[in-house]
Amino acid sequence: MIERILLLLFPAFLLLSSCSEATNQDRSLTEGEEPVTLNIDTTGLAKATFAGGCFWCTEAYFERLQGVKAVISGYSGGTKPNPTYREVSYGRTDYAEAVQVYYDPEQISYETLVEVFFATHDPTTLNSQGPDFGEQYRSIAFYRSPEEQQVIEQYIQQLNEAGTYQNDIVTYVEPFKKFWIAEDYHQDYYKINPTDPYVVSVARPKVKKFEKKYQNKLKAEYKD
């Protein structure tokens, strides 16, 4: 991971960079807990957690879907208490950049979220996504119940049988344990920082491609 200062000094390294560093407060979420900063009523909402590369992109995809009420960027799949972005992005922990999706199951199904997850990153590349390399960018689908585990595994089987990808799917299917909220400046990063070099050159083309493909599932403000 290359820090923001390197982006400024060495533009040639742009495509090797992702989100930048900051300190982190104690922001852990276990099952049943909700973030204080989540300004929505979570009554009746379900949660899903995915890791599919840089969370700036992943967050932007899910935020656009009808039925998704909030998306939070953070870290999951690791063991160290209170991980910081510097630690995760430098590969000093076993965490992956992840998002926690709050959705209305009466408006969008878990199956659809799983479909979007696999459609918006490459599940066949181990520990990398596009210009981002390292274990922190590995593909993980977290499940909260045996039913969700079955949905994920059956969809992977479906993709394999259809020959959707030339290479084997290497996505980890793991039980959800804990989610650490990323630093404040990572939240809604794509929306708040439209001129960021990484957003312009890497994230935006991916998001625009997603919007074109999933027009019928987007919120009204994101439709053409």
TrEMBL record:
UniProt keyword annotations, A-Z: Oxidoreductase, Signal
Domain of life the protein comes from: Bacteria
Assigned protein family: Belongs to the MsrA Met sulfoxide reductase family.
EC number: 1.8.4.11
Catalytic activity: [thioredoxin]-disulfide + L-methionine + H2O = L-methionine (S)-S-oxide + [thioredoxin]-dithiol; L-methionyl-[protein] + [thioredoxin]-disulfide + H2O = L-methionyl-(S)-S-oxide-[protein] + [thioredoxin]-dithiol
Organism of this sequence: Pontibacter rugosus
Pfam family, one: PMSR
Stored PANTHER family: PEPTIDE METHIONINE SULFOXIDE REDUCTASE, PEPTIDE METHIONINE SULFOXIDE REDUCTASE MSRA 2
Its biological purpose: Has an important function as a repair enzyme for proteins that have been inactivated by oxidation. Catalyzes the reversible oxidation-reduction of methionine sulfoxide in proteins to methionine.
Name the UniProt record assigns to this protein: Peptide methionine sulfoxide reductase MsrA
Signal peptide segment: 1-22
Top EC group: oxidoreductase
UniProt domain Peptide methionine sulphoxide reductase MsrA: residue ranges: 47-198
GO molecular function: peptide-methionine (S)-S-oxide reductase activity
Gene3D superfamilies referenced in this protein's UniProt entry, alphabetically: Peptide methionine sulphoxide reductase MsrA
Active site, renumbered: 54
InterPro entries cross-referenced by the UniProt entry: Met_Sox_Rdtase_MsrA_dom, Met_Sox_Rdtase_MsrA_sf
